[in-house]
Amino acid sequence: MADILVRDVSENLKRELSDEAKRAGRSLSEEIKIQVRKGLNVTRLEDGAKAGSTLSQLRSAFTGFALSDEEHREFMSATDEARRKEAERRGSE
Q1: Cα 16-20-21 angle, rounded to 5 deg
Q2: Cα(30)–Cα(25) distance, rounded to whole angstroms?
Q3: pTM for this structure?
């Protein structure tokens, strides 16, 4: 396992983390790891919400445009072919 050194932590933040660790019956080190994980999860959720918002915008832009099953298959086939060609092109560079 790796160690991480965090410098210049305010006394107030250290006290808050220590108090929370004591309330939860954890070591300060374990409490900090939990808080970092929580922070990462919040960031991921926020990033997901942003992506969801973009997806919603894209969906609304295409409202009313419906493909038949055959049109959808053709579109997906063309997309797969374009991806395959791009992968081949990148592989030859």
Answers
A1: 115
A2: 10
A3: 0.50
Map tokens 């990148």 to a residue: 90
Which residue matches tokens 């929580």?
Answer: 38
Q: How confident is the model at residue 1 (pLDDT cuts 50, 70, 90)?
A: confident
Question: How far is the C-alpha of 56 from the C-alpha of 34, rounded, in Å?
Answer: 33
Contacts for 30 with CB less than 8 Å, ≥ 6 apart: 21
| Signed CA dihedral, 61, 63, 65, 70: sign only | positive
Is 16:9 a contact under the CB 8 Å cutoff?
A: no
Token digits of residue 93? 């560079």
pLDDT tens, residue by residue, 25-78: 999 999 999 999 888 888 877 777 777 777 777 777 777 777 788 888 898 899
Cα-Cα-Cα-Cα dihedral of 8, 21, 4, 9, to 10°? 0
